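Problem 12. The chain below contains 214 residues. Write out its predicted structure in token notation.
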Amino acid sequence: MRIDLLGPDPRLLVFGDAESGKSSLLRTLVNGLTAVHDPAALQLTIVDVRRSLADLADLPHVRAYATNAVTAAETVQALARELLPRLTDEAVDPDAAHHVVIFDDYDLSTGPSGGPLAALLDLLPVGRGVGVHVVLSRRVGGTSRGLYEPVFARTRELGSPGVILSGDPGEGVLLGAVKAAPEPSGRGLLVRRGERPLRIQTAFTPAGTPAPTV
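Solution.
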């Protein structure tokens, strides 16, 4: 499996119920990014309401680490204000830092009327151009009720790839025509628009695992 957030995959959705491996997958992603990009080139904003990724908070790449919706909203609003001028710049500085927003358990902080990432809504369609990249993870349970939250809905509408880990198929279609299914931890499907779903087994990356060096 290859996800290139700073290339053709500026957005990623991760679905999975308890013990499915969502947080481990996000940690693996962070370790991969920080191994190949220095802090001047890559800044991370991590929202972690259950503190599953607390071991990442002190990485030099982390611009902000938030554990509640209020702090997350304030942090993301500040990031949006910084990035909005890039929408009108004739040419974005190629050396400008990329910003990756990683939100674990997104469903715990949102409702039908919105959530802490609302300030990024207008930047999502042009994220690759302005250097903002978003990864959202959520439970499979309750997805059918959360489909219309604006940021989540926009991310799906933009054809973002997704990883579907273990969950209840009764929640219905999550991406494309794909439903969740009971799976061992870390196993699931990588779903991309226009491609056949790919069965994957993600790496287990426990808390405290140092990022590899290159």
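Discussion. The longest helix spans residues 22-36. Students who got a different answer should revisit the alignment rule from Section 12.3.
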